[in-house]
Amino acid sequence: MICEKFLNKTGPYLYFVFRVLVGIMFFQHGAQKILGMFGGMDGAGGAASLISLMGLAGLIELIGGLAIATGFFTRLVASITALEIIIAYFMAHGLNAFWPILNKGELALLYFAAFLALIVYGAGKWSLEQLLLKKETF
Prior knowledge:
Layout: H1 2-35, H2 53-70, H3 74-94, H4 100-103, H5 106-121, H6 128-133
Helix pairs in contact: 1-2, 2-3, 3-5
């Protein structure tokens, strides 16, 4: 009963924090690949070529992360990013070992789970989409 009251009262706020954090964290991966920020691809500020799979992934992460953080077309973007991350998981991690902790793919799978939640629950109350379009699309 107490837990239910707490969740009913704070749920929208907690979901907002979840959406923004997932978006910002995913944006950072794109910024690292595309803009060379946070040490870049090689640890020395190098960026991926835009005409490569890594460049495409970086663009999806950069733009998708910003869209998710701001709540703009959240369900559509989360669908695209979920597809990108699960493909990346199998290309970069899944074939190395069965267990994600051994193949270093646990972060990719956590992002995948977060994107599934975003697909189900959408942007939530405080979103750019709600502000501009007065409704949630997709």
